[in-house]
């Protein structure tokens, strides 16, 4: 069974919020200066993962590239404009749900430090900034601790996460060389 293609896009900013050259907040271009980094995550309000803190993203539509899907999903879920050329591809996570194989997905990960607009609630997500060094892992999918810190720190992620029969807890995390 082929894996469903999805994307996640993590907006990163200086912990003080950052502003553009004119002092506004419409265009963010943050370089991660001293004071830490914050990441935009969101409380999932509907659908898969309701009640969890999740990354901004979703399904790749037919004919759409992963980057195009990330741009569209950030707009739909957080009301923020991201351009493809400002995305940094930080890897891939494959999620395998043995008890519900139709849920299995291949998730392309992006980060960006440049966007336009202020994040706002949508019917699906209530966006919120979190300190990237102290993520709310207890409120997220259990797998996040295995790959998200590396992705946010500028590393490259390439892992396969296999969930247990409960579709919540992690059975294993492995690199692609052990796929099979």
Strand percentage lies at 35-45%
- The structure class reads mainly beta
Using the alpha-carbon principal axes, give the shape. globular
The CATH superfamily is Nucleoside Triphosphate Pyrophosphohydrolase
**Series of secondary-structure elements, N-terminal to C-terminal:** EEEEEHEEEEHEE
Q: Give unreliable regions as ranges.
A: 19-34
What features would you describe in this structure?
- This protein is 12% helix and 37% strand.
- With 180 residues, the protein is mostly beta strands.
- It has a single domain, classed as Nucleoside Triphosphate Pyrophosphohydrolase, CATH 3.90.79.10.
- The protein has helices spanning 66-78, 144-152, and strands at 4-14, 27-29, 37-44, 53-54, 56-59, 88-96, 105-112, 114-116, 125-131, 157-163, 170-174.
- The chain has two helices and eleven strands.
- The two termini are 14 Å apart.
- Strands 1, 3, 4, 5, 6, 7, 9, 10 and 11 form a nine-stranded mixed beta sheet that branches.
- The longest helix has 13 residues, at 66-78.
- Residues 19-34 have low confidence and may be disordered.
- A hairpin with a 6-residue loop joins strand 10 and strand 11 (170-174).
